[in-house]
Design goal:
alpha+beta; 3 helices; rod-shaped; six-stranded antiparallel beta sheet
């Protein structure tokens, strides 16, 4: 009888322990940031174009690269937007439009010199690297 009582007591205590709530680990604190950018470059025999969209944290870097590499005489400041445009005989040789988070460059190779075209291609590569890197 003692053995049966001990076995019943052990079974009840075992079942009581199985019913306790398991310890739940704390949820770790995480912060996520998302970044999105896109760059498109088209280089044909007659034109070169560069289009990019990027996060606003890269605005100052992109703006600095443009102002260091493009002729200030060709720049038009439209508030937050900057536009560089060069025309020859009422035809546009190149246009660069910078808006917060956006950049477009179009170069007409037939109206631009070889040095200017090379400069825009190099500028596009520098901008692509700046925009694509986090």
């Amino acid at each position: 009888m003692k053995i049966i009582t001990v076995l019943i007591f052990m079974a009840i205590s075992f079942l009581a322990n199985c019913q306790s709530k398991p310890a739940v680990p704390k949820t770790p604190k995480t912060t996520t940031t998302s970044s999105s950018s896109s760059v498109s470059i088209q280089n044909s025999d007659s034109s070169y174009s560069f289009k990019a969209n990027f996060d606003s944290d890269k605005n100052e870097k992109v703006k600095r690269i443009l102002t260091e590499n493009l002729d200030k005489k060709q720049m038009i400041n439209k508030g937050q937007n900057l536009v560089w445009q060069k025309s020859d005989d009422n035809e546009i040789a190149y246009t660069v439009t910078f808006k917060n988070g956006s950049l477009k460059m179009n170069v007409d190779k037939e109206l631009s010199s070889g040095n200017a075209i090379k400069k825009f291609i190099e500028l596009g590569e520098e901008l692509r690297e700046t925009i694509s890197n986090n």
